[in-house]
């Protein structure tokens, strides 16, 4: 059966930058970024520490302001993004962090409920159904009433992925999502992300240093180096960029 990603017309990019300057703490870390991410894309952003990889993610979700140039995310222009526009932007984008960022004082279910309430959901029955659905999607439906500290690292990351899926995002941004996991657990997380990517057509943008992951689950690669970030297929260049 043909997956949804293959049926998605690649006409309009979900994420688009044109000659964009990426800023971190008022310092420009990347000049002149040109990038288009389409439905169904699986994209890696690689580079040494401090080259602006995470700053791109933060710019996409409105944490960092865009410098010069043009940026658009899921139909929302991020040039001069206003505070009141940020919640709408973040409903269209899911984020997965290396350190999970779960709320440790409440159950898995309550972690997910918190996000739904924060993004404007009102109907309790609909919220309950959505929570069950995303937990089933990541194979964690039996963990709804567990506290985060009762879960393994891999289980916590699966919950973090479930959280990113709550609002059916068009793009998942994953910032070193396997960085704190052993190889076997990391492989399980990658299988889950690629499954979501292929079956739902959800674009995935992933910051990583893990060469094994990159080789096993190939995708488009953007290399951050020397205050630039460009798509590259040169293995030698990529190898150098993955050297911390």
Tags for this entry?
single chain; 244 residues
Helix-strand pattern:
HEEEHEEHEHHHEHEHEEH
Shape: globular
Strand count, sense and barrel status of the largest sheet are: 6 strands, mixed
| Number of separate helices | 9
Secondary structure tally: strands: 10
- As a percent range, the share of strand residues is 15-25%
> Which regions are unreliable across 5 or more consecutive residues at pLDDT < 50?
1-9
C-alpha-based Rg, rounded: 18 Å
Structural class: alpha/beta
Distance between the termini: 41 Å
Sheet with the most strands: spatial strand order: 6-7-8-3-9-10
Helix content: 25-40%
Description:
- Mean pLDDT is 90; it is low at 1-9.
- With 244 residues, the protein is of the alpha/beta class.
- Helix 6 packs parallel to helix 7.
- The strands form two sheets. It has a six-stranded mixed sheet with strand order 6-7-8-3-9-10, with helices on both faces. A four-stranded antiparallel sheet has the order 2-1-4-5, with helices on one face.
- It starts with a helix and ends with a helix.
- The chain has nine helices and ten strands.
- The protein has helices at residues 4-7, 53-60, 86-91, 108-118, 124-137, 153-165, 183-200, 211-216, 235-241; strands at residues 15-24, 27-37, 42-47, 70-73, 76-77, 93-97, 171-175, 203-207, 220-225, 228-231.
- The protein is 36% helix and 24% strand.
